[in-house]
Amino acid sequence: MTPELSVVVPVYNERDNIAPLVHEIVAALRSRLPFEIVYVDDHSTDDSVQQLKSLQEQVPELRVIRHLVQSGQSTAIRTGVKAARSRWIATLDGDGQNDPADIPKLLEACTSAAAEVRLFAGWRVNRQDSASKRWASRWANAIRSRLLRDDTPDTGCGIKLFEREAFLELPYFDHMHRYLPALMQRAGWRTVSIPVHHRGRTAGVSKYNNLHRAWVGISDLRGVAWLIKRSRIPRAEEL
Fold first, then answer.
1. PANTHER family this protein is in (predicted)?
2. Which CATH number does 5-230 carry?
3. Which helix (H) or strand (E) covers residue 78, if one does?
């Protein structure tokens, strides 16, 4: 059966978070609609791939793709979206901090939304991160919002729902997953932010630090702002 939803999860060295998250996705979706889970392992150095392969025996909806070279989170997401078989894609971070129980909320918003809305972005209203990480995120969101005017309070949230075709038409670059609302709006689509749950890490370690995020964020912001400034949305009809 062709899935109505593809859940794409990028993962790198998250062996202890894989099984709990997969089972939560199944619990949230199996009674609702046909779906698939597409895990993209970004060349983990632990046994994440082995964990995923063993889970495939229990979860027929689970597909596993492995990068032969570590390529980053944005690339892993794009790999999963390209492999997905559904028109609509839900994404989750592989660390378990996003709650799969929020996916139905995004699907309900999609059902009642206007046709031009092609991205439903999670909004972590009660973040369960360290104080320094929350402060850095507020600072980055404020600068991004002022520069890009994307009317999105939280672009860093990993849980999102978007149309596959619209995503694949976006310009691809490393870290693009942090700018999906602005990029979708640049393409002429509308976006909506939906409040979602957020959970603390229970296993593994974060793959980012505040200094790294800030350094790459400055360059990315300048690039996305340039793309928006140079974009043109054509209006045309077939005669």
1. UNDECAPRENYL-PHOSPHATE 4-DEOXY-4-FORMAMIDO-L-ARABINOSE TRANSFERASE, UNDECAPRENYL-PHOSPHATE 4-DEOXY-4-FORMAMIDO-L-ARABINOSE TRANSFERASE-RELATED
2. 3.90.550.10
3. helix 73-83
